[in-house]
């Protein structure tokens, strides 16, 4: 029997089956999409991660954040976040994130003090909460200023007490220590606009033992357009305080995009130019605060600028920058610990040590190419490792190694190092801080 001569009832049945199959496929696709975006665990970990958590019956995920020694090496501070998951089966899912701060004396790592900093629900998904914590030691290593979810607090590391440095109406967007008993910080208030991109910005200074109501205003801007003002993470804002707290680099995101340097003592500003910069990797301060390297964009071209805060000299290094990085690069937030080099990384070239004045570029990262595997399982070798700041003068991190500026001496692993380079700290669990001696001057040879 030919297809044309098939009985009509059979053709109707086949047509109905086909329509039903298409309907089932569409319903399954809709269910997958709804599940993908409605389930916070899937949003957080993806389908594979969700299935792994469900099959392994894991109900808590812990992520250790930043670990750091104090300037004098006497204290180790670290952050972490716990992600609590309830209901990985058909029941309703409940997700809760809690962020903590921990610290201990380097001489007694078993005595760990902890403080709960913040707790959020499924409305804040897609990341670990410890990424929203920024902390800085006072110059005398006795106190810690901590920014979390737009609030700034001070911790007495000896007594364990802590108290607020900002007001409830503030969203703190940057801070620094001015001395052992005074901080400076910037805030955004009255955040408004359709996209929460308009705010009033203020720069303040405050004695840490006094009420935030007694703070002194240094500089004010009203009704600025600032695309970062909605975010709780201080590192995403457009203000970069110098390590000494004496100056701040900031800009208006739009419409002018003019970059300024604020003198905190006088309240006066210096204009660096009409250029925008990336808030995460566009500004790098020298450790003593005497110079800042700003990588911005003027029209359609990168502009590299060095500003000397002592002489007020502005040096355009764009030509030298483009010669080394024709395809662009990004800065690390800190220079090397001894202030000799700016750290810059390029996906095409790897990490460089940049001496701004006189200009010199050292392709240190190329000595430490990194092997990686792509999504298809094929192995590749990068053109060079990225370079990152270490607190030890004469040393940087290149990939998985602590290395000297010549790339001759190497130390495998890059846990937190003490400023004198004699100790390293590793935190695998909040109640277990492992502090061990290291020998940077006589490390294991790089293989």
Q: Short summary of the structure?
A:
Helices cover 12% and strands 45% of the residues. By secondary structure, it is mainly β.
Describe the protein's architecture and organization:
The chain has 447 residues and is mainly beta. The protein has a domain at 3-36. The protein contains three helices and 34 strands. Strands 17, 18, 19, 20 and 21 form a five-stranded antiparallel β-sheet that branches. A hairpin with a 5-residue loop joins strand 13 (239-241) and strand 14. Helix 1 packs across helix 2 (40-56). The N and C termini lie far apart (75 Å). Residues 229-236 and 443-447 have low confidence and may be disordered.
Q: Report the principal-axis shape.
A: globular
Largest sheet: 5 strands, antiparallel
Oligomer: single chain
| Total DSSP E strands | 34
The N- to C-terminal Cα distance equals 75 Å
Feature tags:
mainly beta, 3 helices, disordered C terminus, five-stranded antiparallel β-sheet
Give the helix/strand layout:
Layout: H1 8-38, H2 40-56, E1 60-69, E2 75-86, E3 94-105, E4 108-120, E5 133-137, E6 143-148, E7 151-156, E8 162-164, E9 171-179, E10 182-192, E11 198-207, E12 216-225, E13 239-241, E14 247-251, E15 258-263, E16 269-274, E17 276-277, E18 283-285, E19 291-298, E20 301-308, E21 314-316, H3 318-324, E22 330-331, E23 342-346, E24 350-355, E25 360-362, E26 371-373, E27 379-381, E28 387-389, E29 395-398, E30 401-404, E31 410-412, E32 416-417, E33 423-429, E34 432-437
Antiparallel strand pairs: 1-2, 2-3, 3-4, 5-6, 6-7, 7-8, 9-10, 10-11, 11-12, 13-14, 14-15, 15-16, 17-19, 18-19, 19-20, 20-21, 22-23, 23-24, 24-25, 26-27, 28-29, 29-30, 30-31, 32-33, 33-34
Helix pairs in contact: 1-2
């Amino acid at each position: 029997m030919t297809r044309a001569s098939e009985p009509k009832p059979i053709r109707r049945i086949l047509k109905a089956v086909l329509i039903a199959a298409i309907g089932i496929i569409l319903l399954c696709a809709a269910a997958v999409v709804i599940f993908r975006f409605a389930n916070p665990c899937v949003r957080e970990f993806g389908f594979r991660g969700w299935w792994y958590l469900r099959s392994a019956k894991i109900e808590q995920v812990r992520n250790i954040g930043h670990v750091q020694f104090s300037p004098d090496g006497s204290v180790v501070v670290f952050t972490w976040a716990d992600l609590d998951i309830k209901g990985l089966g058909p029941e309703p899912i409940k997700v809760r994130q809690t962020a903590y701060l921990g610290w201990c004396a380097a001489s007694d790592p078993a005595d760990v003090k902890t403080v709960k900093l913040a707790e959020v629900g499924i409305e804040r998904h897609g990341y670990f909460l410890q990424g929203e914590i920024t902390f800085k030691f006072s110059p005398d290593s006795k106190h810690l200023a901590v920014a979390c979810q737009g609030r700034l607090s001070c911790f007495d590391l000896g007594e364990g007490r802590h108290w607020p440095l900002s007001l409830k109406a503030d969203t703190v967007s940057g801070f620094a220590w001015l001395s052992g008993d005074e901080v400076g910080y910037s805030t955004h208030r009255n955040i408004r606009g359709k996209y929460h991109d308009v705010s009033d910005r203020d720069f303040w200074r405050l004695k840490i033992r006094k009420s935030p109501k007694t703070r002194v205003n240094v500089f004010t801007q009203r009704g600025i357009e600032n695309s970062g003002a909605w975010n709780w993470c201080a590192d995403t804002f457009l203000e970069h305080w110098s390590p000494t707290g004496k100056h701040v680099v900031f800009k208006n995101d739009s419409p002018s995009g003019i970059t300024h340097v604020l003198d905190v003592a006088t309240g006066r500003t210096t204009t660096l130019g009409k250029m925008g910069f990336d808030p995460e990797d566009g500004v790098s301060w020298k450790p003593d605060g005497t110079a800042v390297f700003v990588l911005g964009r003027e029209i359609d071209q990168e502009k590299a600028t060095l500003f000397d805060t002592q002489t007020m000299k502005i040096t355009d290094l764009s030509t030298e920058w483009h010669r080394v990085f024709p395809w662009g690069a990004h800065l690390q937030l800190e220079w090397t610990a001894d202030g000799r080099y700016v750290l810059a990384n390029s996906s095409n070239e790897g990490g460089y040590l940049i001496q701004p004045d006189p200009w010199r570029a050292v392709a240190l990262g190329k000595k430490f190419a990194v092997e990686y595997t792509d999504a298809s399982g094929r192995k590749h070798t990068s053109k060079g490792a990225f370079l990152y700041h270490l607190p030890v003068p004469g040393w940087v991190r290149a990939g998985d190694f602590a290395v000297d500026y010549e790339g001759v001496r190497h130390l495998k692993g890059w846990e937190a190092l003490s400023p004198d380079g004699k100790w390293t700290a590793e935190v695998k669990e909040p109640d277990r801080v492992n502090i061990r001696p290291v020998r940077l001057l006589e490390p294991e040879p790089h293989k």
